[in-house]
């Protein structure tokens, strides 16, 4: 039974680190939200503060668990101190832990899997040919995979975090000029270049796991709004007409093919964010520079993944011995 307390202690320690680091992240992001600009809140550093408190400790836990159930590790401290039966129970618990985390990630992937429910236009449709003409005239847009469809849930959006695609409703195409369409495509290109669909999934996953995730959801929604403003600036930087983009944003917020009335985006609380986004687009901040947060988070996650497998450091042995000493106090 004593050996079972080692993986239980590892789980408890991981959750404690997640809670403490999430509380610190919440305090930092609240301060950043109050003192900084909207586009500044859409930075890579904000993304790192959202995911790192859960991602890094969880990566460490899973990597450590995998290392502990490797065949060659089975004969180390555990067998010496507890024998084969106690170690088998411990390894089973660690195995269930890894399976549970993998299952949770798989479930979230299944939930986030795109299920498009629209009708793609025929290849000869004028709306499709018009969009293809705009794409072929801009070298930056030629890498986009674009579907022009009927009955889209939104006028323009991007889905898929492994192979993202841009979806444009045919009604939006018919009511937009070429400058508006080009600016909208450049905006979606900025999302794809920044891997925003994947980052949105990663934040939702980590917030679902974290005990304090619900307290960070407001910061997550603000970060998503800020990303829209950042991609607006990117679209203008790469040649999009700011007035055409602003008009496209308004059309997308207000227009629906079946019901060309102001949508909930314009009528509810999101309308204030829309007004701020338009103000920033026309008179606001300069283009957001790349920050170190995303890279720092990636480096820390890689370290958390690799360190448990470096036997010379003896980190896991130290934790194991520390738990053993606490049990004998």
What does the model show?
This protein is mainly alpha-helical and 329 residues long. It has 2 domains: 5-113 and 292-327, no CATH class; 119-195 and 227-283, Zincin-like (2-Layer Sandwich), CATH 3.30.2010. 67% of the residues lie in helices and 5% in strands. The chain contains 14 helices and 4 strands. It has helices spanning 5-35, 38-41, 44-68, 77-112, 126-136, 170-174, 178-193, 196-209, 217-237, 242-254, 264-267, 270-283, 293-306, 315-327; strands at residues 119-120, 146-150, 156-159, 165-169. Strands 1-2-4-3 form a 4-stranded mixed β-sheet. Helix 3 crosses helix 8 (196-209), helix 7 (178-193) crosses helix 10 (242-254) and helix 9 (217-237) runs parallel beside helix 12 (270-283). The longest helix has 36 residues, at 77-112. It is elongated, with a radius of gyration of 25 Å. The chain starts with a helix and ends with a helix.
